[in-house]
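So, read this over?
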Amino acid sequence: MRTPLSASLGLEFPLFAFSHCRDVVAAVTRAGGLGVLGAVYFTPDELETELRWLDAHTDGKPYGVDVVMPASVSTSVNEVSAKDSARTSMEETLKSYIPAKHRDFVEGILDKYEVPELPADGDHSHQLLGWTDATARPQVEVALDHPIALLASALGPLPADIVELAHRKNVRTAGLASSAHHARKQVECGVDIIVAQGTEAGGHTGEISTMVLIPEVVDAVGDTPVLAAGGIGNGRQVAAAMALGAQGAWTGSIWLTVAEADTDPRVVPKLLAASSRDTVRSRALTGKPARQLRTDWIDAWESEDSPGALPMPLQYMLVSEAHRRISRAGRTELMGMPVGQIVGSMTDVRPVREVIYQLVEEYAAAVERLGAITEA
């Protein structure tokens, strides 16, 4: 199952796993894949803590970090960034750009479901996070101070200076692309690996299906290795990705329901019961289209009464405290998370190692079956 890319990274299997949970990242890496920690929800200090833990729990095997550096954001962000890069000042200024009608709409949903305010001593922070170039750069600095093997950008191409800095530290770079055009732009920035992500994927994703996208991207980027993402949850799908020209699989959703995951236990049953039709691409979370579990919250934002989502990062700044209130109140009908269409196949809770080995066994069986057809 080794490919030139996995061999160059020292991996046993060409399986890459994105997760916001350090335990999942470590478990995938120890099992022979490459775990990638999503950094967007961490402050630089928190990320430092997470990476120190990973350094101590990955047995010296390679792992990666994923940041968000969107190429296009609200013009307000660029204006504020030019004036003041201080995180707290930038956050307070940007909050003033959120229209009153949007705040009223959020409060209307919370009132309908009787969601109380946070207590006075509750957590009212973490509203801007790493959704901008200015706030992601400190995360990159922290990440590159650790022995990571990969620095990836989940949204937008990594700036050329970041790619150069990573290369000076012998760190590979990767960029997610939802079209051949986006893939070529990533290569122009010097990115080493393209993650071609079909619309089936969870989180920020485009409109082209994985089966169509992978060969388009492979043909567009020449010798640059491509990883397939979107709708990959078993070994047959990994084999299909390889047949389309990919050198490995980038997975995410399937790790939300493993035993090591820190997914909210009230959301896990919803994921296990969901079908492949129970996800929707919506701007309700971040301001950019992201596939997520359909909930009453999403339906409200997609309704005719909605004022429409704000541009990134203002939308997340608008709704982040509301999500904490919803979680604290336990209103599960409003609780969801980014997840791909593969959720329909996520029906039980198993340890990471078991999931990895099943992927490998299913892949081997698929290749053997194709080999028999070819011989016949």
In short: The longest strand covers residues 172-177. The first helix runs from residue 4 to 8.
